Amino acid sequence: MAAVDAAFRSIPRNATYFLIWRIENMQIVPLARDHYGTFYTGDSYIVACATEVGENGNSMLKVKESRGPLDVHIHFWLGAHTSQDEAGVAAYKTVELDDYLGGVPVQHREVQGWESKRFLSYFRKGIRLLEGGIASGISNMNNNKPLMFKVKGKQRPVVQQLANIDWQYMDDGGIYVLCIHPLVFVWAGRNSNTTEKIQGVNVAQEMKAAFDITTVVLVEDGKEQTLSKNEKEIFNQILPISQKKVKNYKEVMTDTGKLRTVIKLYRCIDEGGTLKVTEVKTGPLEQNDLDSQDSFIIDNGESGIWVWVGRKASQKERTEAMRNAQGFIKKKGYPNHTQVTRVIENGEPPEFKAYFHTWHDTITTSSLGKQHTIGKIAKTVQTKFDAATLHTNRHLAAESQMVDDGTGSKEVFCVEQTDLIPLDVKEQGKFYSGNCYVILYAFSTEDRDHFMIYYWLGKQSLKEEQEVAALKAIELDQRLKGLSVLTRVMEGKEPTHFLAIFRGRMMTFQGRDSVGLQNGVANGNHFSQCYLLHVQGTSEFTTKAMQVEKCASSLNSYDVFVLFSMDIVYIWAGKRSTGDEREMAKRIASQSGREVVLVSEGQERDDFWKAIGGKKEYSHNKRFEEDIDTRQARFYQCIIFSGHLDVREIIGFDQSDLVDDDIVILDTWNVVFLWLGHCTKTEKRRFSVSIAEEYLLSDPSGRHIGTPVIVVKQGNEPPNFTGFFPSWDTKFWSKKKTYEEIKAELAEENAGIVVVQNSTSRQDLGDDIDKFPIEVLRIKDAEQLPAGIDPSHKEVHLTEDDFKDAFGMTYTQFQGLPRWRQLELKKAVDLF
């Protein structure tokens, strides 16, 4: 074995661990555990994490012996002001460590401010980015020098020290912590969210404990004038209130989470010591596009570059993969901070597999038990499910995608223009490709009733009726006080539970059927016609039948078909079909009331061939079946910015990552869940399914737009959703304190906490009235003003401080003036 740095020799073998080293004077030095999560912008670091396969690592991970394979990730992190020499040492030592660990770890290049989601996931309390190097940084923190930090992030915040303290570096959507002994100020922008405000308070409390601070002061944007005389004097020393001018949050937002729709694959070949890079294809990608003999680059643009190294690639390709990727970035003109990750064949993480339309692990690992999919449904549903069992066993519900056994009550409606027509019980389960349907399903557990609303969209249905189906489903949910789970279903992509509620009798017919004049009975009257159904499924939980062309060429030796003639129903069973498939075909055939005849392939009589239209050649090969991948669930926070969807992934998610004002996508590959927090704006809730559709369309792996979308609302999560979380507490949100409660609690319990409360004049301005900068309020065209502004009383939309700056008095004093004088002043400040 090649020589390895002494700092790496203490790494435990065959065990889990989490370790960090810092580059000091070109040497690798272990970092003390109490400094984990703190990084200096002038330094470089190496982070190594080893977990059992399928588990997520974190900075608190303890050394634990493991007999199975390990997932190992190595990150080298480069501060914004690190030297080229230190960065080079970090990169070189990462390769050395990789070689020492057998060349199998996933390597990541991390640049300050653009860290990968996996890197950030290690630190549950977030990371701290301090100015300078280790020596100068500690000195700055201990010499009572004024400091300012920006707190960004709802759950794992990045707390970054700003090099300079000035209004020009602040925006009205941010949270800033200003430390000037003996006070710590938490300044919250008017457009900041409450979750980040809470994180700001947490950071201030940390500083209060660490640096002998006596008082924490919470200040809302526009309320600086309400500080006490002493506090205002201290605040003015670092941020003169008279010079206040902050950016609008939209000016500083970035599209870092936006998915790139198209990706490219390049092959890297070592030809006599020279690396040759050639483009192979433009996505979506398939696993068989990769070749074990070579290495490949997946180009996802500024969103990241991945280097995949085949197990038979040369040693040079392995060791120089990261350097070659950085050369690729430079050649493409991508920013230097572009994330670079190297993976070895059979060691691909979920983030990598997500770029491929299909992916099958060649090595079976223990992690598959944790990757809940509906792939095992054919086996698991043989056990009787009931709602009580599934609501107790969340993980079984998630794996099977069942919330009960489908024996609850249901109502089925067909969309006819702008109305919903209820279907007769005998017609339920018969779908037409040219129609749309809404299904209300209800079942009960010991504690309450549960409702599920499906809206099914036929492939040949009108766009207008698809929109009506979605709107009617939402209206039905509103009548149920928002207590239902809403699911969009596209023809051919029916989820397991949807099939289960029709008990193996779902049939899809071609064409359109009108139900409006038949009291819910289909006009098409298929059971008096001759047609052919292809039956798929082996149980009442998985079976559906689809109409195909009535001719012998539609048959297949691996399948079962039901042929309806005028007098007889034939069940044609291919030689390679199963007994379970034949039994389910009998269930379909029995609905007509006609004589049922079983016909085995090779034993057909003339009357069968006559009924199907004569003998023809047909396939004896197994049909292509859509793969059911075993993929780990992935969790994304959704942000709508400039009309586009940004998604921010959280790795190692848990229930605490579901925030009240968020829209979250939980992507389990076969189903996409959309979780809506209580505080989500009404407009976003109404068009939530379109968010999931945009997500699917932008997925570079080429996902099917018909993937089932399930809308879940906070506090009403079904077990097939909660089962993807490591633990679930139904009382979690009721126990969680709001920002206002935290402020009140701090003020009451800690004499060192000062909360800058609203003065009487602000109450007069209205706590519930939206506030805007005066430049926005000066817009003359009322239609161009933001929603909610009263054009005749623009002044009430100013913050207290902005009002005082504009009018030279408080709002209370303004109210005491005669009406004519108020109008004169409003004209003078251009608010009339």
UniProtKB/TrEMBL annotation:
SMART domains: GEL (SM00262), VHP (SM00153)
Coiled coil spans: none
Gene Ontology molecular-function annotations: actin filament binding; phosphatidylinositol-4,5-bisphosphate binding
Pfam families linked to this entry: Gelsolin, VHP
Domain HP: 766-832
GO cellular component term, pick one: cytoplasm
Keywords of the record: Actin capping, Actin-binding, Repeat
CDD domains: gelsolin_S1_like, gelsolin_S3_like, gelsolin_S4_like, gelsolin_S5_like
BP GO annotations: actin filament severing; actin polymerization or depolymerization; barbed-end actin filament capping
Family (UniProt): Belongs to the villin/gelsolin family.
Official protein name in the record: Villin-1
Organism the protein comes from: Hadrurus spadix
